[in-house]
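anyone seen this seq b4? input:
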Amino acid sequence: MTFHTVFTVRCPACSARYPVDSGKVPEGGVRARCGKCAKIFLVEVPGVRVRRRTAPAAPSSRQRGTEAPRPFAVADAADRAARLARVLVSDMIRYHRDRYDRALERGTLREDFAEEIRRSWSEYVRRVGEDVAHDSRYFQDELNATLARGERLF
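predicted toks r here
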């Protein structure tokens, strides 16, 4: 029988605290996004020792000159950028549902979500690169499609 405990993690950037069920954290930890400041950080179960790999890794398929199939990987940069835009914009709604609903009612999405949009845009640029971010409209299109529910606000 496995026992689960609840422990508290603290965001390293803003010190926000979150309860975590130890049964939800896989061996080696899991990356989490702070609902307050959007910082991504590693969550590990306290006191659990993780066996780290000590032997040298076998050569990867890239080092051997062959590319192993990656069935869930998105190979195209445009697809990756569009997918990341969807995730970032959806997370804004997910982590701020009450504020999102109020902003929709009042018609103040741009103002009420300005900081979240700025942070998400920064993360988007960091992950897809300056060229893709500035030469495409994936992020803006997703803001309009998802955050603004089809209206062209952004």
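The beta strands are 6-10, 17-21, 30-33, 40-43. The helical segments are 61-64, 77-95, 97-106, 109-112, 114-128, 130-135, 138-147. kinda curious what u guys think
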